[in-house]
Amino acid sequence: MPKVYLRTFGCQMNERDSEQVAQMFVERGFTVTAQPDEADVVLLNSCSVRDQAEQKALGNMRQLGKHRKTKPNLVFGMMGCMAQSRGEQLLEEVPHLDLVVGTQKYHRVVDHCVELMRAKEEAQMDDLRAPIVDIEEEKDSQNTIRDHIVKEHGVSEFVSIMQGCNMKCTFCIVPYTRGPERGRPIADIVEECRRLVDRGVREVTLLGQIVNLYGRHEFPKVDGKSPFVQLLEAVHEIEGLHRIRFTSPHPIGYKEDVIEAFTYLPKLVDHVHFPMQSGSDRILRAMHRPYKAAKFLEICARMKEARPGIAISTDIIVGFPGETEEDYLETKKAVETVQFDQAFVFRYSPRKDTPAANLPDQLPERVKEERNQDLLALVDSIVERKHHEQVGTVQEVLCEGPSRYNAARLTGRTRTNRIVIFDGDPQRMAGQLFNVRIQESTGYTLYGDPVMNEDGTVNAGAPSPGAPSALQMADSVRI
Length: 479
Description:
- 32% of the residues lie in helices and 21% in strands.
- By secondary structure, it is an alpha/beta fold.
- The protein folds into three domains: 3-134, Rossmann fold, CATH 3.40.50; 141-388, pyruvate-formate lyase- activating enzyme, CATH 3.80.30.20; 394-478, CATH 2.40.50.140.
- A hairpin with a 7-residue loop joins strand 15 (394-402) and strand 16 (410-414).
- Helix 12 packs parallel to helix 13 (365-388).
- It is globular, with a radius of gyration of 23 Å.
- 46% of the residues are buried.
């Protein structure tokens, strides 16, 4: 039975795309291996958001080339955003590469790999191989990302609801690598979520490059509700589904109906990842982000009113071309105002073929790094304080199974997306919601003990204080 090794770099979109590819390999009789030296096919799903991600993927692929010495017929392939943007250029940069597949052709990967494997077997000579580059656009490619490999204790899964982006921020290469916005039908998305629930999944994260702009070109508003809110309502009706997340929204699409949804859809968790990028209006304009900092802060305030206790995380870029010290301080002020529960802070990285790469006043790396470290220190202080405030409270946790770093303990997430570590039986508790009393906080991780009932069952999770009190989403679990 042939084996495929698949490594993913980058965002949740890439993770979800890799899941689809892995499932298609399994359906064709392959097994997925975590050991590249065992594989017959080696694939990397690449990211182009930052130069560091590209260099990491390229370095890894070059290093993996050593396995051809022992397996001359081994197929090497690169997928994803870097594959889309560089195309045939990758064949020059990585001479042993056999396959380059763009972001709209994931469903073709298995066919291409099988074709290459057969060609190599027939030729029996590595220098006769014919590399394949498939990066053309394909109509309705958004509908091909629909199948899943559900992992052991797989209780939380990503669901792609759309592909592409029309916003064209000046720093971002994604619109050029993933194409324009195009959404899947609501019925298809709901059916995918139902299938996941039938396989034990209890939480879904709806994915879109700008998720809250879902369907705006394909589907009409109904009763004043956007297609995105219509989708949230439809997914919310699925029996057995406990939690709904979505990422990442854009302020331009964060209308009243999205905020209002948090007041009547209790399965929506108490967390939103809401990219701000900068707190300076001048820099936002240069980024082609069509909102002002005050509007972003207003939306955050309204979200906190709609769902008290909601956690808000964000993305921020420091060192954008032309960013002055005053601009940076505006960003820092916005962070202090919102008090983000988490923030991913990035130094600006010029991307080929993006407008920002050609802007004047590119900042020295030293300045970028100083601002990056300064802002990270502020964010860390806020996060550490907020986590310590959780000690002594009881939090509803969805158990995801054994901890990644200590298999003897279990891990789960609160409704506010905080990681909690605790003891218990994975066979009985994975996929279940129950209350955990938080005993300790260390940085970004909480530790606690499940709350026990008198009959020896774990206390079923109740909604957080900010969620509608009518919801009781899980039964007691005996351990």
